[in-house]
Amino acid sequence: RNALFGINAAFYDIKDKIPFMGFCSNGYINDNLIQNIPFVIIKSGKAEIVKNLNQDVVNQVDEFFQVGPLLIWQGQEMKDYSYFKENKDLFDRYIDELPAPRSVFAYDENHYYFITVDGRSKESAGLFLGELTEFLMKLNLINAINLDGGSSTTLVYKNKVINVPSGIPWKMIPKLERSVSSVLLGFTV
Questions:
Q1: So what's the pLDDT on residue 37?
Q2: β-pair partners for 133
C-alpha cells in the first residue's frame, strides 16, 4: 500500500520457499545466501547492485536480496552465467533454457529502471538473457541485474498491474498474478 511501484524481486529456495535475502535493519540474516551470486542492497533509501556481499557490506546496509545473473556491470555486457549453471538446485530448470518472462533492476547515473518482459503466451514468447542484455545495452546503463522473472514477472504502478503476468503455467492458469517471496517497492519522497 502507498507504494508508487513494485516489482517481483529475489529468488527463493525451491525446497523451503525462503527467499535469498536479509533485512539488516531488524537483525534478520538468511542462512541460505549463496556465494558468488550478486545482490541488490538498500541503504538510506537508495538501491545498488553489488557483485558479492561480505560482512562489511552487510553491516552498512538496511536490506539486501540475492538475484542474478548480472546483465550489465560497470557499463559492460555480461555473458557468463556459469555461476547459475553451477547452482541448478536454485531453479526448476536452467534460467536461460528457453525465452521467458523477465524482470530487471537497472540504473544509469541519474535514474533507476524497473523493466518487465512478458512471455509464455500467444502475445509474447519472452526473451533469452542475451536478447534482454542486448536491449539493455542500448539504454547506456551502468549496472543491470536479472530479478526473479518467469511466472513471477509482475510490475505494479499506482496499484495497477501494468504488464501481463504469464500466470501459473504448470496449472494451465494464464494471465494471473503469482504469489512471490519478495518485492522491490518504490515510494515518492
A1: 76
A2: none
Distance (Å, whole) CA 107 – CA 94 = 26
What's the pLDDT score for residue 42?
86
Q: Which amino acid is at 179?
A: S
Name the stretches of the chain with pLDDT < 50. Answer: none
What is the SS3 string spanning the chain? Answer: CCCCEEEECCCECCCCCCECEEEHHHCEECCCCCCCCCEEEEECCEEEEECCCCHHHHCCCCEEEECCCEEEECCEECCCCHHHHCCHHHCCCCCCCCCECEEEEEECCCCEEEEEECCCCCCCCCECHHHHHHHHHCCCCCEEEECCCHHHCCEEECCEECCCCCCEHHHCECCCCCCCCCEEEECCC
Give the per-residue pLDDT at 179. 73
The pLDDT, as a whole number, for residue 152 is: 84
Strands 102-107 and 143-146: antiparallel
The answer for residues whose C-beta is within 8 angstroms of residue 135's C-beta and 6 or more apart is: 127
Q: What pTM value is reported for the model?
A: 0.86
Given this model, what pLDDT does residue 142 score? Answer: 97
Distance CA 131, CA 111 (A): 22
| pLDDT of the residue at 13 | 64
Centre a 10 Å sphere on the Cβ of residue 24 and count the other Cβ atoms it contains.
Answer: 18
